[in-house]
Specification:
heterodimer; A: 376 residues; alpha+beta; 4-stranded antiparallel beta sheet; 14 strands; disordered C terminus; B: 230 residues; 5-stranded mixed beta sheet; 5 helices; 32% helix; disordered N terminus
C-alpha cells in the first residue's frame, strides 16, 4: 500500500495557517496533545496515546550469557516497529529509513543515558545476566511516534517486574512468579524527548500527523534530569550555541507514573522556555544550511566542558553521561545544550527559577529527505 | 449431547470496541477475559502489480505478537485467518485491489486464535467491507475426564487433553475453519462443536451490541475508548 500523497492545496493551506501561528487542530505553537498512559494486566505492558497517535510497549526478559566486553552488566534491547497498522505507508518486512533512524534515537536516548541500571541485572558475572527486551509497536500514526515511543518505553520499564533470583555460591535459584514476588528494575531517571518541526516560514512544535510531512528539519531533544551542577563555562558556551539554535519550547512533563524505583520526573521543576518572537530571520536561515557546521565546532567545545562537569559531580551518586556524538553521519548534527544555562539565557529579564536542577540535553537535528521546492 | 448449562460453560467477560484507530479504514479491539487483540483493516486499497489478481481483491493478513520477531506459528495463524476472510468477504466486488488486515496481540492469556477471529470480524464490519456473513471464533478445551470448557486461559490450556478453535458463521452456524491440537474421539469433537454453536449465539449478541453502540446517534462515547474497559 502507498501513503496517500499530500495535495498541493493542503500543503499551501497548512503553511499559510502556520504563518499566522494557527494549527489544524487549534493548538498553540508549543502545545502538547493529551497524553494517556494505560497499563495492561501483564507486567511491562503499556499503551500510550499522544492525541490519536497510539503506541504499545512490552518489556520481557530472559537469562543469557553476557557480552564478552561487559561480563557483569545486563543487556538492554529496544526494538521499535512501525507496524503496517499504524499507517498505510508502512510496509511490513524490511524497516524503512525512518524506522531505523527512530530505533537509533531510541537506543541512544534510553540505553546510552543509563537510565536503567545494568549492573543490577547481573546474576553471575561472566555467565548469566538478564537480557531485558523492550518491543514497541506503533498502532496508529498521527504524528510524533518518537515521543510516544519514548514515553511508552519509560513507562513499560518502570512497570516491568523481573523474576527474583538468588545466588548461593555456585547455585542459582530462579523463583517463579508464584513463589516469590517479581522484582522491579532499577531505574535512575526517565529520559524523555520532545520533537519540534521547523518550517521555512517559522518555527513549530509538537507536530501532528498532517504537518509532519512538510517540515524541512526536525529536532528531537532528549532531556535527562540529573543532579545540580554549577558550571560557568557551560553558560558561556551555551550562549554561543543558542545563537544558532531555535529556542526550545515549554515542555510539559507528561509522565506521571510513580514507582518505587523511579526518579520523580519534573517534580517541582518549572520549565519555561520563553518564545522569543522578535528573532531575526537570519537565525532561521542560518539553520537551513551551512551554519550547522558552525554549530558542530561548538559541539566539540561543549563536549570538553561536559567532562569538567563530570568531575564536579563526582560527589553526587549520579554521573551524567554525555552521549557520544556521531561524527560520521552527515544527516545528524548533534548539539549539547546545558539546560539550566539555556533557561537563564532565554529568561531575559525574568527572575531565575528557584529550582536549579540541570538538564543535560542532547539535541539531534535531522533533515528530512524531501526538500521543498520554492514556489515563486 | 451436553448442554451448556449442564457443563457449567460460560463465556468469560469481555468487550469489543470499534473504530479505535484514526488511520485505518476499520479497526476493532476484542478482549475475552485477559486476552486482547487489536485488528485494523485497510481496504480496498492500491495493490502492487505483482500481487494483483484480475478478478478478485488480494487479501493479506499480518499477525504481530508482542515480543520477539514473528515466527512460524504466526504465519500459520495468518494463513488460517486469510482463508476465513477470503471466504467471507465478497472479494469479487473489488478486483485488482488489496485488503490488508493487521492484527496486534495486546495481551495473550489463552484462546488467542479465537480472539483474533473475533477482532478480525469486527474490524471488517467496521470497515464496511461487503461480507456474506459475520463470523466468530470460539475456543474450547477438552479435559481427560471428558469435560469441556470454553475460552480456556493459559493454565487451563496446559492441563487440557485437546484444544480446539472453531470459526462459525452467523447464518447457519456452520464451521468455516477449525484448528485442533491434541487427541480426542470423534464423538467428543461433535460435542465440542455443539457447545461452540450455542456459545456462538451469545457472541453474535455481543457483536450486535458493539455495532449498535458504534452507530447509535444517541450515545456520545469518547473517541478514544480504553482498551481494557469491560
Amino acid at each position: 500500500m502507498k501513503e496517500t500523497p499530500l495535495s498541493n492545496c493542503e500543503r499551501e493551506f497548512v503553511l499559510l495557517a502556520l504563518r499566522e501561528k494557527k494549527r489544524l487542530d487549534g493548538r498553540q505553537t508549543y502545545d502538547y496533545r493529551k497524553v494517556k498512559i494505560a497499563f495492561g494486566t501483564e507486567y511491562g505492558c503499556c499503551v500510550v496515546e499522544l492525541g490519536k497517535t497510539r503506541v504499545l510497549a512490552q518489556v520481557s526478559c530472559e537469562l543469557v550469557s553476557p557480552k564478552p566486553g561487559r561480563p557483569s552488566e545486563g543487556v538492554l534491547f529496544f526494538n521499535l516497529e512501525l507496524s503496517p497498522m499504524a499507517s498505510p505507508g508502512f510496509e511490513p518486512g524490511r524497516q524503512s529509513e525512518m524506522a531505523i533512524e527512530m530505533n537509533r534515537l531510541l537506543e541512544r536516548c534510553l540505553r546510552s543515558s543509563r537510565c536503567v541500571d545494568t549492573e543490577s541485572l547481573c546474576v553471575i558475572s561472566g555467565e548469566k545476566v538478564w537480557h531485558v527486551r523492550t518491543d514497541i509497536h506503533a498502532l496508529n500514526h498521527d504524528g510524533n511516534i518518537m515521543d510516544a515511543a519514548v514515553i511508552a518505553a519509560n513507562a513499560a520499564l518502570a512497570h516491568f517486574r523481573r523474576p527474583d533470583v538468588t545466588v548461593q555460591g555456585e547455585e542459582v535459584t530462579l523463583y517463579s512468579v508464584k513463589d516469590r514476588d517479581p522484582v522491579p528494575l532499577t531505574i535512575h531517571h526517565m529520559p524523555l524527548t520532545t520533537t519540534f518541526s521547523f518550517f521555512h516560514e517559522g518555527k513549530e512544535g509538537r507536530c501532528c500527523g498532517f504537518a509532519e510531512s512538510l517540515p524541512v528539519q526536525r529536532v528531537t531533544v532528549a532531556c535527562a534530569h540529573e543532579a545540580t551542577v554549577n558550571n560557568e563555562e557551560a553558560l558561556r558556551r551555551a550562549n554561543e550555541v543558542v545563537k544558532f539554535a531555535e529556542e526550545p519550547a515549554d515542555v510539559e512533563q507528561p509522565v506521571c507514573h510513580r514507582g518505587p524505583h523511579t526518579a520523580q520526573v519534573g517534580d517541582g521543576l518549572v520549565n519555561s522556555w520563553l518564545v522569543v518572537d522578535d528573532e531575526p530571520k537570519s537565525e532561521e536561515e542560518a539553520l537551513d544550511g551551512g551554519d550547522l557546521e558552525g554549530v558542530k565546532v561548538e559541539n566539540e567545545e561543549v563536549e570538553e566542558l561536559s567532562d569538567d562537569s563530570v568531575i564536579i559531580l563526582e560527589t553526587h551518586n549520579r554521573v551524567p553521561r554525555v552521549v557520544q556524538l556521531s561524527d560520521g553521519s552527515e544527516e545528524d548534527e548533534v548539539m549539547i545544550l546545558s539546560g539550566k544555562d539555556l533557561m537563564n539565557v532565554s529568561n531575559k529579564g525574568c527572575t531565575k527559577k528557584a529550582n536549579n536542577s540541570d538538564d543535560v540535553m542532547e539535541v539531534m537535528v535531522t533533515k528530512t529527505k524531501k526538500p521543498r521546492k520554492r514556489n515563486k | 449431547m451436553e448442554t451448556c448449562a449442564a457443563a457449567g460453560l460460560h463465556l468469560p467477560a469481555g468487550s469489543c470496541e470499534l473504530s479505535l484507530l484514526s488511520r485505518a479504514d476499520g479497526s476493532a479491539s476484542c478482549s475475552r477475559g485477559d486476552t486482547t487483540v487489536l485488528a485494523a483493516v485497510y481496504g480496498p486499497a492500491e495493490v502492487k502489480h505483482s500481487r494483483e489478481i484480475s478478478d478478485k481483491a488480494t487479501v493479506e493478513v499480518i499477525l504481530k505478537g508482542k515480543c520477539g520477531f514473528p515466527g512460524v506459528i504466526e504465519k500459520s495463524q495468518e494463513h488460517m485467518i486469510r482463508g476465513v476472510v477470503e471466504g467471507t468477504v465478497l472479494t469479487g466486488l473489488h478486483p485488482r485491489t488489496s485488503i490488508t488486515l493487521v492484527l496486534q496481540v495486546i495481551q495473550d492469556s489463552g484462546s488467542l486464535l479465537a480472539c483474533c477471529m473475533n477482532a478480525t470480524s469486527l474490524a471488517l464490519i467496521d470497515a464496511g467491507l461487503p461480507m456474506r456473513w459475520f463470523f466468530c471464533g470460539i475456543a474450547c478445551a477438552l479435559y481427560a475426564d471428558g469435560s469441556i470448557s470454553l475460552e480456556p486461559v493459559t493454565s487451563q490450556e496446559m492441563e487440557s487433553q485437546a484444544l480446539m478453535t472453531f470459526v462459525l458463521d452467523s447464518k447457519d452456524k456452520r464451521i468455516l475453519a477449525s484448528h485442533t491440537k491434541g487427541s480426542f474421539l470423534s464423538s467428543e469433537l461433535q460435542k465440542c462443536i455443539a457447545v461452540s454453536q450455542t456459545a456462538a449465539d451469545k457472541l453474535f449478541e455481543i457483536y450486535k451490541h458493539a455495532i449498535t453502540r458504534r452507530y447509535s446517534k444517541t450515545s456520545l462515547e469518547a473517541s478514544a475508548p480504553n482498551l481494557w474497559s469491560t
